[in-house]
Amino acid sequence: MESWTKLQSSLGNINFAQAGTKLSKGFSSSVQATRERLGQVAPDEITELPQEYKDLEARVDALRSAHISLLKITKVYESENYDYPVQIQESISELSSSIGFNITSFAASNLKGTNLPVPNAPAPPQSQHKTLPHALTRAATSAAHAVSSAPNGGAAEADRLGKALGLYAGGWEKVASARLDQDTAIRENFLHPWQTTLNASIAVAMKARQAVRVSRLELDSAKQSLKNANPAKQEQARLEVENAEDDLVQKTEVAITLMKTVLENPEPIKNLNELIKAQLMYFSVAAEALSTVQGEIEELSVAAEGEYSPGTTEIPLV
Fold first, then answer.
1. How confident is the model at residue 18 (pLDDT cuts 50, 70, 90)?
2. Does pTM surpass 0.85?
3. For residues 194 and 152, is the Cβ–Cβ distance under 8 A?
4. Which bin fits 308, alpha (ψ -120 to 50), beta or left (φ > 0)?
5. What is the mean pLDDT of residues 304-311?
6. How many angstroms separate the CA atoms of 91 and 129, rounded?
7. Helix, coil or strand: residue 73
8. In the chain, at which end, N or C, are there fewer CB atoms within 10 A of the end residue's CB?
């Protein structure tokens, strides 16, 4: 009984006349839009919007297109593995290691006090950054260790190669760190505000434009009703046209104001500046680090070439 009372109260608060008017207008707008789409309305029967409004529409469309176009590419900075396709294989390997670690850890924690052998608690697997600079650092470090630890009888060429690989790894380690800093800066100072402009400011302007479109359709539908109204309904139809005209003027002014605000907003240029600043910093660090390493490795290369004498080694005949 209480639920029925609440329902009656809710129904009593509904303005059915107003709701019916909105439904009627919505239906009329849909019919008008369909007739226009099918070419059943003469061009001179479609209300012309101000040229300023149409120019602003085109500029906002261009701004929106620019945001979407650049965002489609720069969203790769949200995932650090964008330059390292091998990361899929490494992720599968890490997943296997993680599962093995969890199982062993569970056994080590829960088999205590039983007659079953308790395995030693393992060390948790280390996570690795999935970027090309980090991968080059790991590969060069591993290669340097392999060359240096192999028995070489004190061969100078092996020592030089191990040193060169170590230098290469050190250079790329700096680049890898700068790569992470770049991605963080781009996400915080470009991607987030760039998406905010697209999803907030531009979206609001687009909604205002949609309101103008609906209002224009309602006006043209009202004009058609006035044109076809019998004498008894002429006055009511004329009032509906006047109200629709006032509504269109008001909504057009609001849309113009919102579109101008979006177009005059300096935020996109500021965001773009932050994007290139982060990229410039990364490439500057990379250029400096690799330039220094390249000079040192070149010295090792020259020294190795100077001692290399292929003609002095005799190949024994079988």
1. very low
2. no
3. no
4. beta
5. 76
6. 10
7. helix
8. C
